[in-house]
Write a structure and sequence with these properties.
Alpha-Beta Plaits; 5-stranded mixed beta sheet; 16 helices; 25% strand; elongated; Competence-induced_CinA; CinA_KH
C-alpha cells in the first residue's frame, strides 16, 4: 500500500545513512499501513521520474524525502512538475514562513531562498514549521504522492503532525499489532524445526517472522484486523503455546536490546553488580552503562587484559595462569570472585576468551570464551562458549550472553 522513495547521491555512496525510511516504516506500521517497498535513487531527473512512475502504479501512497534544498543539485520540485505536467508558482505563505524561519540567521533573503517559495501549481502545500522547504501533497489518479525534505527532524515533525493523520483519515487502515519474543542460544534452523507444529496451528490473522542476530533470534508475531482486543487475545494465546516449547531460552517479550531488558530486571532486584573483563574489553560495561539509571545498581568494573593485572588487581593465582592459561574455568572464576570482593557487590560477571582473529590454538580456537558469574555468599558458576571466528561478533556475543545468562540464572534461583 505504501512505497517510500529517498533521493540523494549521498545515500547511494554511503556518505549519509538513510534513517528516514526506517523511522517512517515504524510509524506507518503503527498507524496500520503496510510499507511494500523502499527505494533510494540518485539526484537525476530521469531516475526520479522512473521510480516515481513505477511506484504510483504499485502503491496507493508514495512518500518521498530529499532533494528540496536551495542548491542546484536539489531538483525534486522541477522533476515533480514534469511528472505531474504542471509548473512552479510563487507561494506567498511559504515565502512568509521562509522569512520568519531565516530571520536572525541570515543578513538577507537571497534568490535561492526565494526560489524555495516556488511550488508546483497542482500540489497541496503543507507548510514546514522547522525549515524552508515546503511539503507537497499530490492527488494523482488513485494514489497520493507526498514530497518532504530529507532533513530527519523536519520530515518527522510533518509526518507525525500532518501526513500520517491525513492518510489515516483518507484510507482508514486496519489495526496492526506486533509482539516480539526474544530467544537466545538456539540456532535459527533448530528453532524453526522445534516450532513446526506450533507455527502450523497459528491463526490465519497472525504472521510469523524470524529475525536472527548473532546468538539470538527475535520472533515477531504480527496480527492484522479491525478489533484490537481480539488480535491481542490471539497473540497472547500463541505466546502461551510457545513458552513450553522454547522454555528458558526466552529472555524477553519486548523488542528491546538485551541491555535494556537486563537493566529493568536488575534494577527491580535492588542488588548491585560488578564486572571483571578480559576478552570483552570493556564492552560489557558499555552495555550496562548505556542504559539510563545504571548507577542505581552498577558499582564498576575492571578491564584486566594482561595476566599481570589479573594477578595484581583480582588475585588470580599465578600457578593457575601458568597451568590452565588465562582462558580457563579456573582463571575466570577467580576473576569474578576477585572483583566481587573488591567492590563488595552482590553479583559479579567475569569474561576471558580468545576474541581473535589471532591467538587461537587447537585446544582453544578463536571464539573460545569462558564466562563466570559470582554471587555474594552463594559462590561462583562458569560456562564455556565458542562464538566463532569474528572478533567484533565474539565481543558482542560475550557481553550480551553474560547479561542474559545472569538474568536467567537469577530468575531460576541458580545463583
Amino acid at each position: 500500500m505504501v512505497e517510500i522513495i529517498t533521493i540523494g547521491d549521498e545515500l547511494l555512496i554511503g556518505q549519509v545513512t538513510d534513517t528516514n525510511s526506517a523511522w517512517m516504516g515504524r510509524e506507518l506500521n503503527k498507524a496500520g499501513f503496510d510499507v511494500q517497498r523502499i527505494t533510494s535513487v540518485s539526484d537525476k531527473k530521469e531516475e526520479i521520474k522512473d521510480v516515481l512512475e513505477k511506484a504510483t502504479q504499485r502503491a496507493k501512497i508514495v512518500l518521498m524525502t530529499g532533494g528540496l534544498g536551495p542548491t542546484r543539485d536539489d531538483i525534486t520540485k522541477k522533476t515533480l512538475c514534469e511528472f505531474f505536467d504542471t509548473h512552479l508558482v510563487f507561494n506567498e505563505e511559504v515565502f512568509g514562513d521562509i522569512q520568519k524561519f531565516l530571520k536572525g540567521r541570515v543578513k538577507s533573503i537571497n534568490e535561492l531562498n526565494r526560489e524555495q517559495a516556488l511550488v508546483p501549481k497542482k500540489c497541496d502545500v503543507i507548510r514546514n514549521p522547522m525549515g524552508t522547504a515546503p511539503i507537497m501533497w499530490f492527488d494523482y489518479n488513485d494514489s497520493v504522492v507526498v514530497s518532504m525534505p530529507g532533513v530527519p527532524s523536519e520530515m518527522k515533525r510533518v509526518m507525525s503532525e500532518r501526513i500520517i493523520p491525513r492518510l489515516i483519515q483518507k484510507y482508514r487502515p486496519g489495526i496492526i499489532i506486533h509482539k516480539t519474543i526474544l530467544i537466545h542460544n538456539i540456532p535459527e534452523a533448530v528453532l524453526a524445526e522445534m516450532l513446526t507444529d506450533w507455527e502450523d496451528d497459528l491463526p490465519p490473522e497472525i504472521k510469523l517472522a524470524y529475525l536472527p542476530a548473532p546468538g539470538r533470534i527475535r520472533l515477531r508475531l504480527s496480527a492484522r484486523g479491525d478489533d484490537a482486543k481480539t488480535l491481542e487475545t490471539k497473540i497472547a494465546n500463541a505466546v502461551d503455546g510457545l513458552k513450553p516449547i522454547v522454555g528458558d531460552n526466552i529472555y524477553g517479550d519486548e523488542d528491546l536490546p538485551a541491555s535494556d531488558i537486563f537493566a529493568e530486571f536488575f534494577r527491580n532486584t535492588e542488588k548491585s553488580l560488578a564486572l571483571a573483563e578480559s576478552c570483552s574489553g570493556g564492552y560489557l560495561a558499555h552495555l550496562v552503562t548505556s542504559v539510563a539509571g545504571s548507577s542505581d545498581y552498577f558499582k564498576g568494573g575492571m578491564v584486566t587484559y594482561s595476566n599481570e593485572l589479573k594477578q595484581r588487581l583480582l588475585g588470580v593465582r599465578e600457578r593457575d595462569l601458568k597451568e590452565f592459561g588465562a582462558v580457563s574455568k579456573q582463571v575466570v572464576e577467580q576473576m569474578a570472585l576477585g572483583v566481587l570482593d573488591i567492590t563488595d557487590a552482590d553479583y559479579a560477571i567475569a569474561t576471558s576468551g580468545v576474541a581473535g582473529p589471532g591467538g587461537g590454538t587447537n585446544e582453544k580456537p578463536v571464539g573460545t570464551v569462558w564466562i563466570a558469574w559470582a554471587a555474594s555468599g552463594k559462590g561462583v558458576v562458569s560456562k564455556l562458549f565458542n562464538f566463532g571466528k569474528y572478533r567484533e561478533r565474539n565481543i558482542m556475543r560475550t557481553s550480551e550472553t553474560a547479561l542474559i545468562e545472569l538474568m536467567q540464572m537469577m530468575k531460576k534461583g541458580e545463583i
